[in-house]
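Let us work through a complete example step by step.
Step 1: write down the sequence.
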Amino acid sequence: MLDFLLIQQFLDSNAFLVEPSTITDLVASKRLIIAPFLPSLNKYGNFWCNVTEQNRYIWSQDCSHVFEFESIGLFDVALVHSAVLIDIKFPETARIRFASDLTVPSRRHQKLLLETSRAGLKMTLTNVKQYGYCLPSLPAGSVFQNQADAVRNLQLEILVGGGELPRSRHIPLEHEDLDTLDFDHIYLINLDRRPERRVRLEKSFSVLGLEVERIQAVDGRNLDLDFLKGMGVKMLDGYSDPYRHRPMTMGEYGCFLSHYAIWRDVVDKGYEKVLIFEDDIRFEHFFRQRMATIWRDIARLNLDWDLIYLGRKRLVDESEPFVRKSRALVHVGYSYWTLSYMLSNAGAQKLLKGEPLMKMIPVDEYLPVMFNRHPNDTWNAAFPERDVVAFSVYPLLVYPSHYTGDVGYISDTEQSEVPLMDAESSIAPGGDRSKDSVHDEL
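Step 2: predict the structure and record it as tokens.
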């Protein structure tokens, strides 16, 4: 005798169930109509929290706690879809009737909502576990490539959250040729003691079909003043962090030296154009397609460029106009972060020519100095040739994987030791500070 229905109309190809106990949990709930919560992209999921009087979807904040897993349990909602279990042992479910043509998702949703409302039945959503994921609703007329792109976007977001969308053993693994998106080389900067970031990014690059060289980052924990002096590294006289009023940390020295090594490699190997990634990033949706648009604009405009940010933090509320006849590139202002940027051979040469090791500031301060958009005239004066031609993509293609305060947030530059000799010789505004006070700030 049939007790439950999990039929094609309610388990569609947009649903990815990854928790083996899903069906068991749904059955054990003893609810008439229940679905596992399947999050997706952009606050989309397989349920409607509220509907209008005409039974149409309406956005509401009422179920934000469900999306964020701030509340765990079973919740009555207006509609569940994509993966739905109906317990037909209950006589009430016999009142549900369905038409034969339920091929359009919106019609399926509307029909289920109409029939359950008419029968006086409630639908339930459970987020007790991470049961799986679902694709966002695609517009009418979407083709297979749109679906494939949506799957890639979803895979990348799942990886950021620490999960993974496993491949079914029934689907053959196709090895696509990797490429470098028309760059001569792509670099990933990664610390040896951050293997989890390397693994996640390698999986992300596989999803995106990118061939990337991992560069061992210079670890600030392994640096000391004697080593820095032996390399000819010296902090710029008078440098003080604009926000924390402290000298450079060892992590900031290591970060700069990591980028500097890549600039040298670009020049030594004669690469004309490269792409650089740090390892604490997430990719914007449709990354490959957006990069293709950037290259088309550069070629169409015959754009002269040295550096183009793909990921940054805009610091000053100043005008950043679009490049003429482009809707993808802007003239860049004062910015922080070096999450990802394109660099030309000429740009690498200019950055090296500034001789930054002898008067070092953090790398995300150095770049704005070198394209002459830094507000600190004293620092600017230390680098007289500030002629790097810089732009930024808009909207950005790369963002931080975590922000300050997020669970899992780690900064290997900020949460790092300040070299004490430099700390003693660089007095921040506000008076002298002891060695202990410097460490207390960190």
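Step 3: interpret the result. The radius of gyration is 27 Å.
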